[in-house]
Fold these 4 entries.
Entry 1:
Amino acid sequence: MTGIWLIATDITHEQAAALGELLDPDERARSARTPDGPGRRRFLAAHAAARLLTAAAAGIPPELVRWRHGPQGRPEPVGLEGELSVNLSTAGRWALFAVQQRADGDGEIGVDLEPVPAGQAAARLARRYYPSSETGGGATEFTRRWTRKEAYTKAYGGRLADGLRTHAGPVGGSGPYRIDGPLGPCTVHDLLAPPGHRAAVARTGSRLIRPRLLSYPADLAEEFGVHRIDGLDLPHLPRVDGSDAHRTPATRRPDLEGRP
């Protein structure tokens, strides 16, 4: 099963302090390098959520989750490689986190969430990065393709430059679609996203994806308006832990707003 959580990431200073206690030393050091403010709090929320959701899927305490990173920075939970594939994407006050319980033949998972940029910026980026056949269409169409391409790239742990030159498939429906790019074969599926955003999930190989979109944490869904997105009623994730310190979650600067 592939579960994908839409995470509300704006949290208070008090929540950020509590969630920071969940992180490992490397994550806390990375947080400390982020300027104090919303960006740091969102980082803490995102990585705490990733840890809690991974721990819940693996059936272990969150403090036992450890990460290692591939050549392009793809995180993997140490010791759980044969059981889970996970991936995180963030965009301002929102994030997506995917957890896939492995079965025979399942590949790696990748997700991407992006804000829709201004039309001129989208056209400029399309001309710079996309195949000539994909440079038409407006900003929403551009972003739909971008999220598929980046989800594809993240599933393989490859370089984004390789993924952006890959054809993203038709834009008339949500998929699933097969992508045959330089990194290997993949299936992609569009996801519902907050207003002004687009999102996609990808999995290496050729098996179809049947993603289930959830909100996390459950008690923040209505507060942040994510219980209904584009007409979809999102099922709620049961709370992972009864502690208030574990109630909130996520970040990364959106690709379409500029890379670090």
Entry 2:
Amino acid sequence: MYLPAFDSQLGSGRLAEQRLTEFVDSRGWQLTGVFRDHGIVTLADAGPALEQILSMLSHGQIKGMVTLASYTISWDLEVVRHIEQRIAQLGGFVTYLYGAAGQPAGVPRQGG
């Protein structure tokens, strides 16, 4: 599960974490960890939390990432697509609790 450092729409990271945990549980998935980045994700720098997720995917420790919406990765859609593609290349998926552009909520997305 991936969370931004702060989500102004939800007001607190704890509420976001609770919603994501309930979503993961409702799908029967196993939560491996909660990862937070406190900086800006760019094409050149995915940030430590996303890099850890990518490393875990490459080692087969996890199968995908669940987050609130694409903006929790980056406000820049090019960066979001790049991260989705990197995850897909590693055989993983990204699922957005509230959906991604052109994608229903809760449906795993395989790259951009």
Entry 3:
Amino acid sequence: MTRSIPALALMVSGLLFGCGGMPEEGETQEPQAGSEGTVTQSEVTTIVHPGATVIYNSNTDTFTVRDTAADGHSAVATIYNHITGSDTRCWNSGGVDTSVQCFRNFPNGPRLTIRACTGEAGPGTLLSCSSPVVINSFAPTK
């Protein structure tokens, strides 16, 4: 407990005396080279469901579907595109501890609803799914 008091005192004094990394009054802060026009967001979303994990990378429009259970069922990602109204799936019927990647080419700014599911790939039947995850992705512009 006594070791945390000096650390707390340093943090508070840094806030009081302007050591927070922002320019002081009358000073300017120049942008770093190459930082103009860059927009960042979390590019990777992971959805976990018993028997399936789906990883979506919004930068590359790539879905990785991993089968995580030796239950005889396939893992699948369901993808609904709110802009086009299309509903697609990415199936992994390779068995436990395998992954499949599906590449999509969405237009800029799609709003997607994604679920991780288990199912039967042959007839295309879903057995159980995660709660839907809504993604508002976008492509950075300069």
Entry 4:
Amino acid sequence: MLANAYLNQFSHDEQNDYLLLSYFHLVMLKLDLTQAHAIQKKLANRQLGAIQATFFQTITMFYYHLNEDGCRANSIFSKLSQQQNQTDFPQQVGLQMGIFYLLAEFQLQNQNFSVAAQMAADGIDVAKINSTTQFLENFIGNLLRWGSSIITSRLL
């Protein structure tokens, strides 16, 4: 669907959301860091709203993680985890849940399970406040996959 969209028909905020979704898609789903870098440069030069900027940084954290630049990825995580406790975007719950999900997933991939659980707990609190469960379903599914692979590797 992203490929079929005409960017010039969107408002500025909708264009930003489109680019963010494209960036997310390239980094998290396609693992295409070359194309993601091009989108990253476009987004870095655009005026983003607060929640959009935070979501951008969260995806960028994963971009660096996948590029094996742990120093930059961990630096972004530190900044974002501090911001998450101070920021509430009730009108944009989807992006906020995406941020919590990516923060928790980042920690799961780094096998920092207690930090991942804390990020998940924070996300669950926001999900409860906003009456949404989309975060829970995705995170619990990933937690179960990670947990079973860790248990299996330790048993072998």
